[in-house]
Amino acid sequence: MAEMEVKGGESSRHSGTRSKKLSTRIDLTPMVDLGFLLITFFMLTTTLQKPKTMNLYLPKKVQDQKLEMKIQDKQALTVLLGSNNQVFYYEGLKPTLTEADIKATTFANNGGIRDELLDKWKRVIQDTGGQDSMMVIIKPSNQSTYQNMVAILDEMNIDGVQKYALTDISPVENDLIKKMESGH
Amino acid sequence: MPKVKLPRKSTHVDMTAMCDVAFLLLTFFMLTTKFKPVEPIAVVTPSSISTKLLPETNIATIEISKDGRVFFDMDNKSRRMQLIQALNGSFHLGLTSDEMVDYAIAGSLGIPFNQLKNYLNLPVDQQKSIIQPGIPIDTAINVPTNELDQWVKYAFNINPELDWVIKADDNTRYPVVKEVMNTLEENNHRKIHLITSLEKIPPGTVAWKEQNVPVKKK
Prior knowledge:
By secondary structure, chain A is α/β, with parallel strands linked by helices. Chain A has helices at about 30-50, 65-70, 115-125, 145-160, 170-184; strands at about 5, 25, 50-55, 75-80, 85-90, 105, 135-140, 165. Chain B has eight helices and six strands.
């Protein structure tokens, strides 16, 4: 075994006792084990540190009118991101939007935007007889954070939503959600 | 004291060789880990379920701090050198070759063009104590107020294979992110990687089912 010998200290002469020479043998096997454990740990963790990414594909600039004409009113669900992690949504393409159309929700796992998305999806499939799928239009407001944007895009991946788009919020929508945020 | 010793064979294994191997491996790993240059800002990225890994080379990273300051970073020292030389020539920054070498070995940078010479002139420890103002950015491209546009154009010119990465903080306001994405989009860089930290897939959802339930072919 790996060993180290340490000579015991000689006692002082004042006491007059016999000096004892202690021979201590230290077994260094655990130190070598620890060394290898640490090496293995660092080998593995440095490879795991690679940051993960979420790929975002921005579509080619299409005139907004063309894009909206392709989406049917029944398929569309617009999600608006407000300040303080608030989420608002309304169904369909509403040319004249009122406060009554917009509903508020949160990013919670239960009872939040996920349930609303799945609920809308089911209804779209029922209404169109399985032909068309839901189209989610995401419009973050200027008060929302990057975390909100990533969270809603992540939600698309979690729920398997294939059709979604990230666009600018309109002034009408912006005013309405500001009103709703301050009023409620 | 017992005088009778049981006859035994020596089980002494000389561990010197083992120790040597251990320290050699340690030294190897110590030397081969690349030290990243000091980051001017600490960014807490949001989490997502995505497990895709970032490519290792040919990346240009645009970092956005909490307060909306934009930083630009690119890998590969020789390309960084080419980048700073090209920018120096076009915008008459007046950089000396020492200052350009300083840039080439550094990391992400968030300094407007007019302050770049003064910043690179400073010694490294003073550079660390300065709060970098961030690269100016605007909603439109090809305007003097959008310097990020120039960084993007010149970097792409030097390396057309660059992957574009955005590393923004959780609490960064959306308008700055929008301007950065817009700058990239107007330059025809449509595939953007967003750096996120890993989070677990919530159970019961579609993505969870895809991962856990084996796909049965009908």
